[in-house]
Description:
By secondary structure, the protein is of the alpha/beta class.
Amino acid sequence: MRSIIVIAHNLRSAHNVGSLLRTAEGLGIKRVYLTGYTPFPQQIDDIRLPHIAAKVNHNIAKTALGAEHSQSWEHRADIDKLLIDLRSRGYVIAALEQWPTAQQLHNYRPPERLAVVLGREVEGLEPDVIESCDLQLMIPMSGHKESFNVVQAAAMAMYHCRFQP
């Protein structure tokens, strides 16, 4: 079975994080990494102030509905170190972003080990993060809008990569 990892980098919304964890859990994603300033659930030895960690955890739990406990996740502040680590373990790193060289998701045949990187809700991934990835994937838009919500886009990508033969 294909090993898929999702990296959520610099998301602002705890509700998006909860929804992402729930979707990843439902699609059998190996692990979700929450990088940069992305909110993350409470953890043992949490370095955040207790009242801040509890508030963030509460907001994540509203949409995760327990997936914050059943889905494997990890907070890593430094995405660059994480990408190096994943590459050393044989993962191909794909940015999910509207980008001039991006392949259309529906034409992509994922490898056995894939890490999909998602970015900020409004601005998307920073150009330096996109360029540090091995490839870029995009979901073609048919309507007037330029992008999907980050969790909806992640769900489409996770589903495609999980079940593509």
